[in-house]
Amino acid sequence: MTSDERKQWCQVRVHPIGPSTYFSWASAETKDLFIEGYFYACISQIQSIAEGLAKFIAERNALADRLYRDDARMYQRERVPALVASRAITQACANAFLSIAGTDRNDFHHCNKQIPNDFSRLETRAQECMLALFTIESEVFAFSYGANGTINPTHRQYWQIGQNGDIPGYIKATAWG
Predict the structure, then answer these.
(1) Which of 8-12, 20-24, 74-78, 154-158 has the lowest mean pLDDT?
(2) Is residue 74 part of a domain?
(3) How many domains does the chain have?
């Protein structure tokens, strides 16, 4: 690992453990994208993950029929306040979702000419998205450690807990050596 990569590694945080879901791999890859300097990809991927996470939260709280109907035509900026109103997420989590969406979501996803091409601006935006994703995942997938290193999820509806109490999880690398 180069000194620049070590610096990048230390600039961002990731939530260490989450449930094994369809977006676990994508979420884990965001730090690698950031470290390698793939800021466009990092930003776009986090924006996609945030949209998937919002839908996941809505589904697990029986809100998907209302927020994701074909005729609803709601966008992330409209769905997130509905998640707060239903008490599925806190306002801090909503602020993180809205930070990720920003005003540039369509520019990144559709490669519009408005995408910044200044490396430092991209790095700053990617770092903002990384921090916001950390905030969301830390709230939604909050947990504590129990006896013998077991995981005790705070919001059990977001985890797949087996009949014997086993929880399939996804561990992210959070430090370099």
Answers:
(1) 8-12
(2) yes
(3) 1
Q: Are 105 and 54 spatial neighbours (Cβ–Cβ below 8 Å)? A: no
Look at residues 2, 80, 12 and name the one whose alpha carbon lies nearest to residue 42. Answer: 12
Domain that holds residue 94: 3-171
State the Cα–Cα distance between residues 161 and 169, nearest whole angstrom.
10
CA 102/CA 35 separation, integer angstroms: 22
Determine how many CB atoms are found less than 10 A away from the CB of residue 139: 16
How far is 75 from 106, CA to CA, in rounded Å? 12
176 domain residue, yes or no: no
Asked, for residue 177, whether it belongs to a domain, the answer is: no
Cβ count near 118 (within 10 Å): 8
Helices H / strands E in the chain, number of each: 8, 4
Q: Is 116 exposed, middle or buried (0-12, 13-18, 19+ CB in 10 A)?
A: middle
Query: Rounded to two decimals, what is the model's pTM?
Result: 0.85
Q: What is the dihedral of CA 128, 90, 168, 48, to 10 degrees?
A: -40
pLDDT tens by residue, 41-70: 999 999 999 999 999 999 999 998 888 776
Domain contains 39: yes
